[in-house]
Amino acid sequence: MTTLIDPETIPDSRDIHDAGIALFLDFDGTLVEIAPSPEDVRLDRRVAPALDTLRGSLGGALALVSGRPIAFLDEMLAPHRFDIAGLHGAQIRLGGELRAQADAPENLRDVLRDLVRFANSHVGIIVEDKRISTALHWRLAPELQDEALELMRRIAAKLGPGVRLQEGKSVAELVPAGASKGNAIAWLMATPTYAGRRPVFIGDDITDEDGFEAVNAMGGLSVRIGEDRESLAAMRIASPTALRHILLEAAETGGLTASSFSQQD
């Protein structure tokens, strides 16, 4: 899969009307705090029911857009199941049906062995095998950032144009070249459930910047969690805790609009 969507099908911002918002949410660093290792994240038990309530009030136009696989997000949000663009858009599920999934890049399994060898010889390095993509984490060994990035960049160059290197907070990931959060959001916005609404995308990392760019181009609202770096996002929210407060309150009161994200204490 080289692209998820024909650009001509992306709604023009002039076509967006008052049908409400379409909400797109990253997971790590957005709905949950960043954890030392990928398996350590914890989701507030109130969040999934609140998202389910909000989905109903938004006419179904709510999706997670994450670097995590769909299966992992389903486990975290169970028993609720949502529209999801997983693995940076390499997987898309809409209405309970898998609508798009990229093939694993050629030779990815071969380079995985190189990454495992690197992790085995460096304390604190974690390899996350997602089958379609592979991530290398150094949050527990920040002094190894330069060495880890050099390795991932070298491997990406070796794999060729079918692979894109996605860099993030203490992580770098090899993903199919056509997969991006921006493409995934655009794909979803061209479907009946989402079309005509104002897209709102909330994320926290470098990996979310192309999503911010896509939403901005559609006349939507881009929101970044945290103040730690420059961003294309039009608005900031201090932390996942602050976002959870907004979402939980909106679920309780029955209303969520773009202005909800600017009404912080």
CATH top-level class of the largest domain: Alpha Beta
- How many strand segments? 12
**Which second-level CATH architecture of the largest domain applies?**
3-Layer(aba) Sandwich
Query: How many helical elements?
Result: 7
* Average pLDDT: 89
Distance between the termini: 44 Å
Strand order, sheet with most strands: 5-4-3-2-1-10-11-12
> Uncertain regions: pLDDT < 50 for 5+ in a row?
1-18
- Supply the CATH superfamily name of the largest domain: HAD superfamily/HAD-like
> What's the shape?
globular
Strand content: 15-25%
Largest β sheet strand count, sense and barrel closure:
8 strands, mixed
**CATH level 3 topology of the largest domain:** Rossmann fold
Structure report:
This protein is an alpha/beta fold and 265 residues long. The chain folds into two domains: 19-102 and 178-259, Rossmann fold; 108-175, 2-Layer Sandwich (Alpha-Beta Plaits), CATH 3.30.70.1020. The strands form two sheets. It has an eight-stranded mixed β-sheet, with helices on both faces. It has helices at 47-57, 70-77, 108-120, 145-159, 181-189, 209-217, 240-253, and strands at residues 21-25, 62-65, 83-86, 91-94, 97-101, 126-129, 134-137, 163-168, 171-176, 198-203, 221-225, 235-237.
